[in-house]
Amino acid sequence: MNSIILIGFMGAGKTTIGKKLAKELDYKFLDTDEMIVSREGMSINDIFDRYGEEHFRTLETELLAELVENNVENVIFSVGGGLPVRKDNHFYLKKLGKVIYLSVVESTIRERLAGDTQRPLLRGSEKEVADRINSMLEKRDPIYREVADIILQTDNMSVSEIVEEIIK
Ligand code: S3P
């Protein structure tokens, strides 16, 4: 299928870039987090608190399988930062289209997500959050690289430059 799937850590800019890219290419834009929130009728924080992270991961996998089954085309997807961590999801990501990893270094993530309250995995003191970002990024970066067709190091690029690069 011919869609584009943006993957990367929380704060990598998947949603911002995805929306602009969709506009430029005249594609539809879909965000897996937004789809899950709208289907479940509750926030990501509430899903994690009430049912736990594993349940959220299962919702992600089910949604992905459904998108592939429905042959969804011409879409720019922004997927949750943890979605590619489940290796079973790689099959579906590849089926949907081209997978692009928006890579950012740890300091960029910390700056962008300072004070965020919407992400259950980033709750805690500044030190706890920084340590968690560090260890999660270390674990996830090789997984993102493994599933990606294209890798873009985006720290020093503007949104327009990133969009242009992807279109090229
Ligand atoms: C998560 C990333 C979030 C959201 C959830 C868990 C993660 O999405 O799916 O809070 O495990 O990295 P974004 O990457 O869009 O912030």
What can you tell me about this protein's structure?
This protein has 168 residues and is an alpha/beta fold. 56% of the residues lie in helices and 14% in strands. Helix 1 packs across helix 8 (159-167), helix 2 crosses helix 4 (53-69) and helix 4 packs parallel to helix 5. The site of shikimate-3-phosphate has 10 residues, from loops.
Relative helix content: 55-70%
Please write the string of helix (H) and strand (E) elements: EHEHHHEHEHHEH
Overall residue-averaged pLDDT value: 96
Structural class based on helices, strands and sheet pairing: alpha/beta
Distance between the termini: 19 Å
Q: Strands of the largest sheet, in order across it? A: 2-3-1-4-5
Ligand catalogue = shikimate-3-phosphate
Topology overview:
Layout: E1 3-7, H1 14-25, E2 28-31, H2 32-40, H3 44-51, H4 53-69, E3 75-78, H5 88-96, E4 97-103, H6 106-113, H7 126-147, E5 150-153, H8 159-167
Parallel strand pairs: 1-3, 1-4, 2-3, 4-5
Helix pairs in contact: 1-8, 2-4, 3-4, 4-5
The chain binds shikimate-3-phosphate.
The site of shikimate-3-phosphate has 10 residues, from loops.
Question: What structural keywords apply?
Answer:
8 helices; 168 residues; binds shikimate-3-phosphate; globular; alpha/beta
